[in-house]
Amino acid sequence: MEITWKGVMPAVTTKFTADDNLDLDMFKKNIHAQLNAGVNGIILGGTLGEASTLLAEEKRELTRFTKEIVGDRIPVIMNIAEQSTKGAIQAAETAEQDGASGLMMLPPMRYLADDRETVEYYKETAKSTSLPIMVYNNPVDYKIEVSLDMFEELLKQDNIQAVKESTRDTSNISRIINRFGDRLKILSGVDTIALESLVMGADGWVAGLVCAFPKETVAIYNLVKAGRIEEALKIYRWFLPVLELDINAKLVQNIKMAEVATGIGTENVRAPRLSLNGKERENVQNIIDTAMASRPNVEEYLSV
Q1: Catalytic residue among 164, 185, 215, 256, which?
Q2: Is the confidence at residue 300, as pLDDT, over 80?
Q3: I need a surface site. Which of 154, 178, 225, 262 has the fewest CB within 10 A?
Q4: What is the structure's pLDDT at 172?
Q5: Residue 155, pLDDT above cutoff 90
Q6: Are the CB atoms for 109 and 81 separated by under 8 Å?
Q7: What is the pLDDT of residues 99-109, one digit of tens each?
Q8: Given pLDDT bands bounded at 50, 70 and 90, which one contains residue 280?
Q9: DSSP β-bridge partners for residue 9
Q10: Of 121, 122, 136, 301, which is the active-site residue?
């Protein structure tokens, strides 16, 4: 499947049962909520997916199961976050075998690779698969930045096609467009500046709080792309306190609490993560409760 790299693509959470197994029933319920809202892709195995705690066979099961649910309606994209080029190549091959439509790739984990090493990591993995690739550029959290000069080299590989832009510098979107035009598709990777990024020219939004609020997220995207900025801003300003739960070390626990509030998830996380408690939990719950009390009706915007 070709990927157009636009629209809203949820980085979905992984659902667990109370006894720490995959909760495929709740996972399916959430995926259907995403589909009903009109998202443009599903991304598995990211930070929100608790990928670092998933067993290899669980990742395979999630890929195959998601593909069964969505069929050919939208792409299923598997994240790759590996420590070695060999591991990344193996992960790409496995994802392709299991029916993934594309890959999202972080730079090498743990080892702080230099520019040359990072480029080779991406290029060698890209050569090993026919799947289209979105580079996840998040130097804030992962300490490696893929520069424009590095992208110039990476784009020599036809299947490196997009960037999840998470530098948190919205002006970088203009730099990318000025340098590459339409050659490199841009998807905003930071919920709190997604609207601004879309206005600046980003093609899509790899979203986090969409896991709990799919319709609101799609509505904002649709309105911005239709040029109806004031209407988008009204929803976005309501949404912002909740979106800020995504730029936090406990984003997984935060977003799972929000999924409970909207009826499409549970709080179950995999250790060493633990569900929130005490004042921390109270603060997050207050943010969610406040948003739920004034939640807008966005149905009319889903077909804009």
Answers
A1: 164
A2: yes
A3: 178
A4: 97
A5: yes
A6: yes
A7: 999 999 999 99
A8: very high
A9: 206
A10: 136
Rounded to whole angstroms, the Cα distance separating 207 from 187 reads 9
Residue 39 labelled as part of a binding site: no
Is residue 62 packed enough to be buried (19+ CB in 10 Å), middle (13-18) or exposed (0-12)?
Answer: buried
First-residue to last-residue Cα distance in the chain: 25
- Tell me the pLDDT band of 54, cut-offs 50, 70 and 90: very high
DSSP states of 102-155:
EEEE---SSS---HHHHHHHHHHHHHT-SS-EEEEE-HHHHS----HHHHHHHT
Q: Which one has a higher pLDDT value, 16 or 1?
A: 16
Active site residue 111: no
Mean pLDDT of 154-160: 98
Whole-number CA gyration radius for the chain: 18
- CB 261 within 8 Å of CB 273: no
Query: Could you give the percent of the chain with pLDDT greater than 70?
Result: 100
Q: Which residues pair with 160 in a beta bridge?
A: 133
DSSP at 276: -
Token digits of residue 142: 């992962």
141: three-class secondary structure by DSSP: helix
pTM beyond 0.70? yes
Which residues neighbour 32 within 8 Å (Cβ) at sequence distance 6 or greater?
69
Is-catalytic flag, 164? yes
Residue type, 247: I
